[in-house]
Design a protein that fits this description.
Strand order of the largest sheet: 5-4-1-6-7-8
Largest sheet: 6 strands, parallel
Number of helices: 10
Order of helices and strands: EEHHHHEHEHEHEHEHEH
Number of strands: 8
Distance between the termini: 10 Å
Low-confidence stretches: none
């Protein structure tokens, strides 16, 4: 029986792609570097920020650290205007909360920007706790973030569903022994997600109600 749900954030609960792309391009430009393409940025989403900055433009670690610092300074300039909660998320989170499911967020995003978006988009309710990049755990697809939440919340792996939009999320949940649910509207498409063998795959966030009502 599923008692807890651990959600990825970017690409699962919120469409942050426009904000991420705009911020990344601005960070590169401000440092006099050639801007990466939209697609080169998008395929890195879900990884730790410094790794995203490095891979997006094919730069070395030293430059990636500088881009990361600049990115963090600029993100909130774009986040409020360019971030949207996906359809059905707000109402479904409310439904899950009313049904007594224990919920947490499991994200590679830093805590300050996560809190900023949650409050700006009125979705800062229902979540019992979270793990973020600021917990300094081994990043996705390693299971450490999920294992930390399991211990913190006193849940067993078989009681938890991990929901995400990338193979990094699904591989993380599978490695922790949880059931997993891939959403196809985020950053990785259906075919790629299926390679990670999610327990469930859905095209609409509201379909979680059908899974959890079984």
């Amino acid at each position: 029986m599923i008692k807890g749900i651990f959600f990825d954030f970017d690409g699962t609960l919120a469409d942050t792609v426009p904000a991420i792309v705009a911020t990344m391009k601005t960070a590169y430009r401000n440092l006099g570097l050639e801007e990466p393409s939209d697609q080169d940025i998008i395929v890195t989403i879900g990884l730790p920020l410094e790794e995203c900055c490095r891979l997006a433009g094919g730069i070395d670690k030293a430059l990636a650290q500088k881009v990361t610092e600049e990115y963090r300074k600029r993100f909130n300039d774009f986040a409020a205007e360019h971030t949207a909660i996906f359809p059905g998320v707000h109402d479904t989170i409310g439904w899950l909360h009313e049904k007594g499911f224990r919920m947490a967020i499991c994200t590679s995003r830093g805590a300050p920007s996560l809190d900023f978006i949650l409050k700006a988009r009125d979705i800062d309710f229902g979540f019992e706790t979270r793990v973020t990049a600021d917990d300094h755990l081994t990043p996705k697809p390693a299971p450490d973030m999920v294992l930390t939440l399991l211990e913190r919340m006193g849940l067993r792996a078989e009681e938890v569903l991990v929901v995400g939009d990338t193979t990094f999320d699904i591989d993380m949940g599978n490695a922790a022994g949880c059931r997993t649910c891939a959403v196809t509207y985020g950053n990785h498409g259906r075919e790629r997600l299926l390679e990670s063998h999610p327990s469930f795959i859905i095209d609409d966030f509201e379909c979680l109600r059908d899974i959890l009502a079984q």
